[in-house]
Design brief:
single chain, about 425 residues, about 0% strand, about 75% helix, mainly alpha, 20 helices, elongated
């Protein structure tokens, strides 16, 4: 009855509740949000918001049909996100009405950055980057906003691992910033940033395609090298040169690899980067060995050993000594090979049993070669003293067998007629190891 309704309205007023407030409590959040946007006259924002709801529903249907049930939190149920969306969509619409597409661009960019904190909202990030791109085409600023829009899309694609697609947008960013003096808030030139971002993406793409296509990987690394130089980052240019050297070495072209490794070494010397210099000398040693430039390789490995020792890097020093020992072994300089294998073994810092065993085997082989050389000399010279020493060694298989540095053996004393062993000079041979 009218009396009852009148009483209810009176009670509502006494409680401080108006009719609109009652409707607000009764209706859903979605309904109230939509009503609020429409009452304020923002029809475009209302349409865009509901397009997002429909877009998510469509994605969920497609995901269900492909992989079964998928649990997704609906945007419509996330009130904080909806409030932020409402604010920025209205700001973008206001800007368009005022003929300020640059402000509309900024509003959409804020939305894209906001949703970057939510990994499951990648689709919203993409949507608002696309809106940024659309608005950038309306801005009269010599293409700066358009360049930035390409950059943000490229970076977003790179983060999710779609490197090939990212390259297209980042290359557009690089082209649009060429011959422009644009700077960001930190005072960095956008063109330099474009070059460095492309350098990183080309490098990642080169690693991604290497197993399938080494030549394509080389092409990407060359582009990365050029971008690092274009961006004025000497350190990154040096690293790019080192990577190119490594990949040319891997595909069997040590001559070209040497050129790039020398470039890396020059960069490291200018930057006084001792660690980088060690890496460069190690790589040069490998390439020079492959080219048959043994003397040059020997000098490179010696530099590598000295730098590692000066830097106090025990494990790197061990690797350097091992590399130098391998080269001495190849040259037949078994004495130096044993010396450096021993240093390598002493400085190893690893619990890897396989590596330890390989080092012990290398050391044992070098010792055997060193002893074999002395043993062969003793056989070839065939003097009474050396023959007696060989007989003695056959009896005991000790590790002495150095004529100039130990007392004469029992056999030597008998042959010489001496009653007591005496220390003699003469032929010098290293002892055959017990493995012989």
């Amino acid at each position: 009855s009218r009396t009852t309704a009148s009483k209810r309205q009176s009670l509502g007023r006494l409680a401080g509740i108006e009719k609109a407030d009652v409707s607000g409590y009764r209706n859903s959040y979605k309904h109230n949000l939509s009503l609020s946007i429409l009452q304020d006259g923002y029809v475009s924002s209302f349409i865009e918001l509901f397009e997002l709801f429909d877009k998510q529903n469509e994605q969920i249907k497609n995901a269900d049909s492909e992989s079964g049930d998928v649990e997704v939190q609906l945007l419509i149920d996330q009130h904080d996100k909806l409030d932020f969306l409402k604010t920025k969509l209205i700001a973008a619409e206001d800007s368009r009405r005022c003929g300020a597409p640059d402000k509309a661009y900024d509003a959409y960019l804020e939305l894209a950055h906001y949703f970057e904190q939510f990994p499951s909202d990648q689709w919203l990030i993409d949507h608002f980057h696309e809106r940024c791109m659309a608005e950038s085409n309306q801005v009269d600023d010599d293409g700066r906003k358009q360049a930035e829009a390409n950059f943000y899309i490229g970076v977003a694609l790179e983060k999710r691992g779609d490197l090939s697609a990212a390259i297209d947008f980042l290359e557009k960013f690089f082209t649009l910033t060429t011959d422009q003096d644009w700077q960001n808030k930190e005072g960095e030139h956008l063109h330099d940033n474009a070059a460095i971002q492309l350098y990183k993406t080309y490098t990642c793409l080169a690693e991604e395609v290497y197993e399938e296509s080494p030549p394509l990987s080389i092409e990407y690394l060359k582009k990365a090298y050029q971008m690092a130089k274009e961006g004025g980052n000497k350190t990154e240019a040096g690293m790019a040169s080192h990577r190119l050297g490594n990949i040319y070495e891997a595909v069997g072209d040590p001559q070209v690899a040497t050129m790039y490794h020398k470039g890396y070494l020059d960069r490291c010397k200018r930057d006084k980067d001792k660690v980088g210099m060690g890496k460069a000398y190690e790589a040069l040693g490998r390439c020079q060995t492959s080219e048959g430039k043994i003397e040059e390789a020997l000098e490179s490995y010696k530099e590598f050993v000295n730098i590692a020792k000066d830097q106090g890097q025990k494990e790197v020093y061990s690797q350097a000594c091992s590399a130098l020992a391998d080269l001495y072994n190849m040259l037949g300089d078994y004495g130096h090979a044993v010396e450096y294998f021993e240093k390598a073994a002493e400085n190893m810092e690893t619990d890897d049993q396989e590596r330890l065993q390989l080092m012990n085997i290398s050391l044992a082989i070098a010792r055997s070669h060193n002893t074999l050389q002395s043993y062969s000399l003793a056989i070839l010279h065939n003097t009474p003293r050396l023959t007696a020493s060989l007989v003695e060694w056959k009896d005991y298989r000790d590790d002495g067998f150095i004529m100039a540095s130990r007392p004469a053996t029992r056999a030597e004393s008998i042959i010489s007629g001496s009653a007591t062993p005496t220390k003699e000079g003469g032929d010098t041979c290293s002892t055959p190891s017990k493995e012989q």
